[in-house]
């Protein structure tokens, strides 16, 4: 009789690891908790080392891979061993730390999404999600529940991570999918604010929501989406007014910033009258708060007065942006004498020298606020710096007002008014764009760019190779050369060249076309434009090529050599 085959011996199955509660209370002394915290610390260490300066690209990738794999394994290994409340707290804590380290994708996928999926499996990005669905799925026990505050924080942080991921891939939002994602994020933020608005103890969610909403809207405004973001900025402004704790003076500066953004949207959409009306409404709200503060027993502090003044100036500048032009525009079919000041003769006269300066002095009480109002009045998002031309619409009265604004701004730069380097450089770009060459020349001279650039460099860093310093210098060079190409006037300014810089000196003495090409290449290389915006490179190159082809008689000798701006 045949023998039956012997059964193979099987090794005993290992029991699953003991949970944390097996060892007692869940605290740092618990061995499971201690091991989990140690593993997380090692994981974050990999990611921090990745960001150390001087690390090679291959080493960065390896450290990032190890950190990502480690984080994935930690959540899988400890999910069943830790209590839900502790596991969720750890998810949020690590997610916040990853956000501070700018590891937005890891925080999004491995922390915030994991947390939300445990509460509800609903797709938060699905089209048609409303406030009722959001509240019923994520807050079934209301907002008094202990975990409700944490969930609200995760909802906001998760959307900000998504926005940062979009910006990392497409910083200029050139892809329509990126724009669509940003508007989806704005909608989710709006729903979060809508369900929390009735609860005063959650006012910080409202405040954070307005900050995030403003940040995304301002980004979208730079690519021509002002008409679409207007409703979100209006919503943010009204939420600040509807939350009683946020009506305090402490938040007045931020509220005025939101008001100004709404006004700017109206102006971008060519609805200046609505922008002025909203600015006047903002002034009324500010005045109401001021009257309430006066009714209190204690006098206004210096800090409070400063906040009221800053908010008032912002709204006044938005009003001035329209009122400086409208009264002097000539109605169609009506003959009216043209009032134009001789700016050259008025140059050394005391203020107010023009109608525009008289209006500025009636509204504003200091040079800094006047300069701010001038900048806002001249700003037009539809204009490009290297494509100068008259105002739109091209009316004689409007051109006179722009000339007076540039004239006043250059005069303020001439004094010792403490105008910041950023504001001065921005003003010079605007004046160049409007082809106000007298004001441009005056601003260049009075700024004394050798001290200006040194001052600018001192503020940023005492390092001559600082990219911001190099970018400012390259922009100034480009404007000076473009001025000689765009006007038949005799050149009044030169460019800085190093005596030992053979490449730049050779380019300087070569024909104008070669020198402009050299300058364009320097600007593009300095700011790494080829990586971030190749479309803009093509646009700038085509524009400069067109200008140079139309000025065939341009010679390198037309530009006198100056050595006022040596490095």
TrEMBL record:
<dbReference type="Pfam" id="PF14858">
    <property type="entry name" value="CFAP54_N"/>
</dbReference>
<protein>
    <recommendedName>
        <fullName>Cilia-and flagella-associated protein 54</fullName>
    </recommendedName>
</protein>
<dbReference type="InterPro" id="IPR027912">
    <property type="entry name" value="CFAP54"/>
</dbReference>
<feature type="region of interest" description="Disordered">
    <location>
        <begin position="1"/>
        <end position="20"/>
    </location>
</feature>
<dbReference type="GO" id="GO:0060271">
    <property type="term" value="P:cilium assembly"/>
</dbReference>
